[in-house]
Amino acid sequence: MSKHGKVLVAMSGGIDSTVSAMMLHDQGYEVIGITMKTWDYANSGGGGKETGCCSLDSINDAREVSVKMGFHHFIVDIREEFGDYVIDNFVDEYMAGRTPNPCVLCNTHIKWNSLLKRADAMDCEFIATGHYAIINELEGRKFISKAVDRHKDQSYVLWGLSQDCLNRSQFPLAQFTKPEVRQMAYDWGYEELSKKGESYEICFVPDNDYRGFLKRRVDGLEERVDGGNFVDTNEKVLGQHKGYPFYTVGQRKGLGIALGEPMFVTEIRPETNTVVLGRVEDLFRNGMTVSQVNSMKYPVLPDGKEVVSQIRYNSSGTLSTIRNEDGQVKVDFHANVKGVAPGQSAVFYEGDDVIGGGLIYGSSIRKN
Description:
17 strands, single chain, globular, alpha/beta, SH3 type barrels, 26% helix, 9 helices, six-stranded antiparallel beta barrel, Rossmann fold
């Protein structure tokens, strides 16, 4: 019998999840590795080489380490669960004029639920992943805090985890930096693994061409949306575009229109197939509305609380005040924020702690 119990470790084949499994095995847990097949690359219709967490090479890498370390490893096909929810949402969000973040959705709604279901079937008390984040507790509630390695911190993408998920989750890398993790892999005799690179692309859009993916997924999309208007912030028609789903708020390059000065997408109106362009100052907002909110540190997000709101993965966030209103959260920025994109995640921090998060909904408030 193991010293600490059984833990189901999500193994993508990458260095972080692999070292997490090694650490737990070394600590005396009975480790069971699981690799989830979320997407069939051949079905994406894109070109290029298969890469990332769903590739055959990655699956084989995870299995090889499991065999060498002496613990069980399983491959689970969740393509149907993944596709019905994550990909349909991805397409629907772009068709609604928003910019989705499918990795957040996958983490919090698909992978964790799939892990918990398999953990129960295998009598595992815990599940573990290679995320860089800390799990803390306050008055019986679990919540996420920023990792020691701030360059790798992934607390932003975990705002949607439920209490059931957090109560059974472990993040073995929480207190380590990426260089330390690489060194651990090297010390264990996995020199090639220690040099393995990062995977940043969306698994079902490995060529990073989301426009091409949308065209392949939505019949007749180009014909339906081609020829809409670019307008400026005063509603003056500037030219024609190739279809509103192919643009995102904040975009400057690839607009296909020359106006003599840098112009940015400031708003997308799917109902009229209109894309609004403006100068950089037109991207700034003084607030936003957030929906589908998950309160993590507290049972309910404190009304009127001062927090740091983060609207993209690599941003430092901005001081804000949050207010609960009609099932949503209204956010007032203390300083103007550039490029608030509907569909992206908004995460609220109290110091290093995630108190909650949600999805940016609709248009943010324009700064007068």
